Amino acid sequence: MSIPQLEVFLQTVELGSLTKAAEKLNYTQSGISHTIKTLEKKYETTLLIRDRSGVRLTSAGRELLPYIQAAFSSHRLLDEKVMEMNRMESGLIRVGTFTSVSSQWLPGIIQKFKAAYPKVHFELVHGNNEEIEQAIISGRLDCGFIKLPSTEKLHTTFLRRDPMVVVLAEDHPFSDKKAFPVEALEHFPYIEINEGIENEITRVFADHHIRPDVHYAQKDDYAVIAMVEKNLGITLLPELVLKDTIRNVVCRQLTVPAYRDIGIASPFENSASRLTNSFLSCTREWVEKEYEERPT
After folding, report:
1. Strand 259-266 versus strand 120-126 pairing type
2. Which PROSITE patterns does the UniProt record give (predicted)?
3. Which of the following CATH numbers is that of domain 1-74: 3.10.580.10, 2.130.10.130, 3.40.190.10, 1.10.10.10?
């Protein structure tokens, strides 16, 4: 049993496809299949069912999955410990993230971290909360930025409360108001962020029984802001998305509290690597300093 074998199995399960796993790991499909058969022979059981729709775990595979995930994580921690003992400063940190953190926070955080660890490399993986949490639990990611609260299976640290703001064109009738009435969200054409999942925006609507008059749906935050600038509608976004925007728009907080809490999640401290813990400390310090200097 080797780290590459475990990684092949976990990637195949995560992606649900031999072909996708081969593309992700730069293997041939036959190489992926052979590796999984080798594991199945070693464990004397069938781990995956293969059919035209892809692959899925057998009952034995489901039972062994958490142990394989733990073994994969332990192997990576062992390798990193050996590097530490050999006084090697290089390494890889795999970080889960989402768009606004990637564009507004991570460049500064990574710059600060690499000043102390110049040979460390990063792999940034975008996803929603559930995807990032599961990837950390499985060992595919070392840590990840998430919206709190999170699963109790992970260690989480609160970083910043990010207010929700209504984004308006400069000549909108409410642009000169100090705050935007929550009930007015359904009185103007609305541009929706189409993520396909419940989030802090849809919860604002649900909590206040708002039915927005959706005229457009976009998947990209910044495309939505551009449409607001052209007075095609209003939208509700986290304030961090608007930081340093070059668009001529106006942002107003709602008349009722609405926000998202941003945190960073990792395995519990006794199982996270030294590099991961150093990155977590660097992240906390950077966010604290950033908002000391730029109060909201």
Report:
1. unpaired
2. HTH_LYSR
3. 1.10.10.10
